[in-house]
Amino acid sequence: MAEELIIANEASKEEKYKSLIPQIEALVTGEDDLTANLANIAAALKYGMDFFWVGFYQVKNDELVLGPFQGPIACTRIMKGKGVCGTSWANAETIIVPNVDEFPGHIACSSDSKSEIVLPAKKDGEVFLILDVDSDQLCDFDERDRIHLEKLMRIIEKLI
Ligand code: SME
């Protein structure tokens, strides 16, 4: 019974991404305003994937500044190397955090956040944008999220 439920959930997440990512690509194609596109992507992810919090941080000088997002209010600025987002920026790599309490230096914007995935987008080899997705459940992100959300970051990189 429990096993059936897990399989059903697994299929559902995969199917949601497979349906949603092409729709997002169609939504942003032909629009050259990055803020408008990021705002629609955040809304599409929030309502398409039922994420607790999803949003973007833009690299501005030596820090990350909050961009379009959906969910509870969040930290406005994050220094390079700080928290999960600042670490993803500094290392230019995706980070999956199964339990935020076990990530040294995690920045708690909401005490309800329990796990998260953070992904960078690059232009000319430099990170210019971070996508952060938070869940109110532990261990809510895995390799499927990484694969599909990294595809999304490649779509975003082509926008600028
Ligand atoms: N938890 C993030 C901060 C951003 S909020 O979760 C929206 C971090 O540690 O970088």
Enumerate the strands of the largest sheet in spatial order, edge to edge or round the barrel.
3-2-1-6-5-4
Q: How is the main sheet built?
A: 6 strands, antiparallel
Work out the strand percent.
25-35%
Structural class call reads alpha+beta
**N- and C-termini, Cα separation:** 47 Å
Ligand inventory: methionine sulfoxide
The radius of gyration over CA amounts to: 15 Å
Helix content: 40-55%
How many helices does DSSP assign? 4
What characteristic shape results from the CA principal axes?
A: globular
Mean pLDDT across every amino acid position: 93
What's the total number of strands? 6
Residue runs with pLDDT of under 50 for 5 or more positions:
none
SSE pattern, N- to C-terminal: HHEEEHEEEH
What does this structure look like?
The structure is a single chain. The chain is an alpha+beta fold. It is 42% helix and 26% strand. It is built from four helices and six strands. The chain has a six-stranded antiparallel beta sheet, with helices on both faces. Helix 1 runs antiparallel to helix 2. The chain is globular. It starts with a helix and ends with a helix. The relative contact order is 0.16. The mean pLDDT is 93. Bound molecules: methionine sulfoxide (SME). Methionine sulfoxide binds next to helix 3 and strand 6. The site of methionine sulfoxide (SME) has 15 residues, from helix 3 and strand 6.
